[in-house]
Automatic annotation (TrEMBL):
Subunit field text: Heterododecamer (2C3:3R2) of six catalytic PyrB chains organized as two trimers (C3), and six regulatory PyrI chains organized as three dimers (R2).
Role of this protein: Catalyzes the condensation of carbamoyl phosphate and aspartate to form carbamoyl aspartate and inorganic phosphate, the committed step in the de novo pyrimidine nucleotide biosynthesis pathway.
Protein name: Aspartate carbamoyltransferase
Gene name of the encoded protein: pyrB
Domain Aspartate/ornithine carbamoyltransferase carbamoyl-P binding, chain residue ranges per copy: 3-142
Biological-process GO terms, alphabetical: 'de novo' pyrimidine nucleobase biosynthetic process; 'de novo' UMP biosynthetic process; amino acid metabolic process
UniProt similarity note: Belongs to the aspartate/ornithine carbamoyltransferase superfamily. ATCase family.
EC class (word): transferase
């Protein structure tokens, strides 16, 4: 792919190709580059997992990683994101991973005829998070070996979630059935065509996958945050020990993290037997290796796989 910015651009077959290549990387596959290749990770919004995981993926592929610290960059002098990207291109970067709080920030970049380097969207506002979505799909595929007919509930802060938007679309394309839970006011029109909303007590004993979403206080209005009760949220919408005890024997718990422990999921369940939360993070490295490799292949920078 020239760029990887949205799950909407990927067919079911494309998603499966990414998953299969990520599994090969997990099993130790390496690639050979045709020349030294340079990557940079431009995170204009906070991140622990995605940033570190892209950097690990780049290093495992043998790329040279250029540093970028937005707080000490010329953004402080008013330089735009577009000019920052063009600067990295002029200096010699081949591929970038970018995160920004603005939805679809990437459109101007990929449509700019003067930008030729590869852009992997590492999350745009409440829009898309394709690398997270692919690692979620890889984790589900590793567990069940297929998607057809699986029941997946996405529960929590739907309204502000780029993970929910990315995952509901791709799960549907792959043949899974999507359900939603959490505060019903966050189950807005864009979710309704992908699946029905049910109270969590009707979801837990019927789903193959219970995927919880973080309450994104940074995107919630101050007055709404002021009236938010973590204790009440957990009781009404969260995964309690009692609800976990009613889950199907082979079902799994997922969360993109960071987790608000004792809000979305009870503290002691974050690392329970059913939880795949840290497996998701592990798989993120291999999925991001596959994403970067696809952009390098597009540019003729991969000599061979072995
Ligand atoms: N899941 C995820 O995107 O985490 P970070 O915000 O830490 O990158």
């Amino acid at each position: 792919f020239e760029n990887v910015v949205s799950m909407e651009d990927l067919s079911a077959q494309d998603v499966m190709s990414f998953i299969h290549e990520a599994i090969e990387f997990k099993q130790g596959k390496q690639i050979e580059l045709s020349r030294p290749v340079y990557a940079a990770n431009l995170f204009f919004e906070g991140s622990t997992r995605t940033h570190t995981s892209f950097e690990m993926a780049e290093r495992k592929l043998g790329l040279q990683v250029l540093n970028f610290d937005p707080a000490n960059s010329s953004l402080k002098k008013g330089e735009s994101m577009g000019d920052t990207v063009k600067t990295f291109q002029a200096i010699g970067a081949d591929v970038l991973a970018i995160r920004d709080k603005h939805n679809e920030y990437y459109k101007d970049l990929i449509e700019d005829p003067n930008i030729h380097l590869g852009i992997a969207n590492a999350g745009d506002g409440s829009g898309q998070h394709p690398s997270q979505s692919l690692l979620d799909m890889m984790t589900i595929y590793e567990e069940f070996g297929h998607f057809e007919g699986l029941k997946v509930a996405i529960v929590g802060d739907l309204a502000h979630s780029r993970v929910a938007r990315s995952d509901m679309e791709v799960l549907t394309k792959l043949g899974a059935h999507v359900y939603f839970g959490g505060p019903k006011e966050w189950y807005t029109e864009d979710f309704q065509k992908y699946g029905e909303w049910l109270p969590i007590d009707d979801l837990v004993d019927d789903m193959n996958v219970m995927m919880f979403l973080r309450v994104q206080h940074e995107r919630i209005a101050a007055d709404e945050n002021g009236s938010f009760s973590a204790e009440r949220y957990h009781k009404v919408y969260g995964l309690t020990a009692e609800r976990e005890s009613r889950m199907l024997p082979d079902s799994i718990i997922m969360h993109p993290a960071p987790v608000n422990r004792d809000v979305e999921i009870a503290d002691e369940l974050v690392e329970c037997d059913k939880s795949r939360i840290f497996r998701q993070m592990e798989n993120g490295v291999f999925v991001r290796m596959a994403i970067m490799t696809s952009m390098l292949r597009y540019r003729g920078l991969v000599k061979e796989s072995y």
